[in-house]
Design brief:
disordered N terminus; ten-stranded antiparallel sheet; alpha+beta; single chain
């Protein structure tokens, strides 16, 4: 088989590539499907259905959880515009599975008799053509965005919430997208630690996520919420100053600390008493295009807790909602103009023993091959110290790499 013969889109309906972009952390590739579970928004008891699917057979699973699973956890709705029409969740047991460790691809099993090296070459070796149909345009104007932020600030000043994550959509209709090449370009631009490419039926997810939602290894669970962003500079001195500025910025630190406290509370629902720890608080992590503030929270899991129940207790992630979480989600629905769907959900793997690692689906392009609708949502945390102008600038910074990935190199 030649690398040029490998087809990701639209030929292969089940492909997930979880790329750590690091020799110190594994990457995973799953291709083909032995079995799957696909649930739509109107499904009842989606968490129970997912748990029963998992219990039916101990196996590896790859897939995503959409943000609107929140509606099955609380009395919430999702009535905003939905251009993508993606399923609520989609998991599958791959027919062939591999992981990369110490620079070498290891075969877990290989029903399809494929070589993972060819798939990875296909993901990284092609060039992107500039398609003017794919230019992202905002769903809301800057004036509408400003009005929404000011409205949310009034809720904060009244004490309804302390923090809320407000997002806006950039989109393209009638778009023809080479998802593989777009992923290759986006990954080159960002080298994000929780990068992923997924092709699941008509839905394709191209993600440069820097954020981990939850990882379970043995009886330990960690979450690494991100709150706080500043641009990188090519000038080393200016870049160091920007890093120091982010580390000492009271607004950015307060955003992070509030969400870290919320995550501590989420993890306490399934943790052994006294085991929740904040291992890192407001640490600066540097990525290719931005510096970010990241905290790390860990806990020891109670025995015999199923992986679905662990995720359910912490879902959706506090970094993409706000605090208090339920009221923040209500205000998100009232103010945002687009249904989040897959965006700000989570994508990752589950092992036969119930260990897992899921990212937060941000810095992502999501595409429906059938309707040719392309969506990229970005957002940020709104606190009492926020201004609409600064938040809008942060959104433009976050969407810039996604726009570049859709254009010529």
């Amino acid at each position: 088989m030649n690398p040029k013969d490998v087809k990701y889109s639209p030929g292969q309906e089940h492909v997930v590539y979880l790329n750590s972009n690091s020799p110190d952390a594994p990457s995973y590739l799953g291709v083909g499907c032995r079995r799957e579970i696909v649930l739509e928004l109107q499904e009842t008891s989606p968490w129970d259905q997912l748990k029963q699917f998992s219990l039916a057979k101990k196996s590896w699973l790859l897939g995503y959880l959409g943000y609107d699973l929140k509606n099955s956890l609380e009395k919430l709705g999702s009535n905003n515009y939905d251009g993508l029409g993606a399923p609520l969740l989609h998991f599958f047991e791959p027919a062939s599975l591999f992981y990369l460790a110490s620079g070498k691809w290891i075969t877990v099993y290989n029903d399809l008799d494929i070589d993972p090296e060819y798939y990875i070459q296909a993901l990284h070796n092609s060039q992107i053509g500039n398609n003017p149909e794919n230019v992202l345009v905002p769903r809301v104007s800057e004036e509408e965005y400003t009005a929404d932020i000011n409205s949310l600030l009034r809720h904060i000043h009244r004490g309804d919430i302390y923090e809320v994550n407000y997002c806006q959509e950039f989109f393209a209709e009638n778009a023809t997208l080479n998802a593989v090449n777009t992923y290759a370009k986006l990954n080159e631009l960002t080298l994000a630690p929780h990068s992923c490419f997924a092709s699941l039926g008509p839905i394709q997810i191209i993600s440069a996520s820097p954020e981990r939602f939850l990882r379970k290894s043995g009886n330990k669970v960690i979450s690494q919420p991100i709150k706080g962003t500043i641009r990188r500079s090519l000038d080393p001195e200016e870049d160091a100053l920007l890093k120091t500025q982010l580390r000492s910025d009271p607004k950015e630190r307060s955003e992070n600390i509030m969400i870290t406290d919320l995550v501590r509370n989420d993890l306490s629902h399934f943790a052994e008493k006294g085991s929740v720890r904040v291992d890192e608080l407001c640490e600066v992590y540097s990525f290719k295009t931005v510096h970010q503030l990241i905290s790390t929270v860990s806990a020891t899991v109670k025995a015999d807790t199923h992986w679905v129940d662990l995720i359910k207790s912490a879902f959706p992630m506090g970094s993409m909602t706000g605090a208090p979480k339920i009221r923040a989600m209500q205000l998100i629905e009232e103010h945002e103009k687009t249904k989040r769907g897959i965006y700000s959900g989570a994508l990752g793997y589950v092992t036969p023993d119930g260990d897992f690692d899921f990212n937060v689906i941000i810095r992502s392009i999501i595409y429906n091959q059938e309707s040719k609708y392309l969506s990229a949502m970005v957002g940020g945390a709104i606190t009492a110290a926020s201004t609409a102008e600064r938040e809008y600038e942060e959104c433009l910074l976050k969407v810039s790499a996604l726009k570049k990935a859709l254009l010529n190199p």
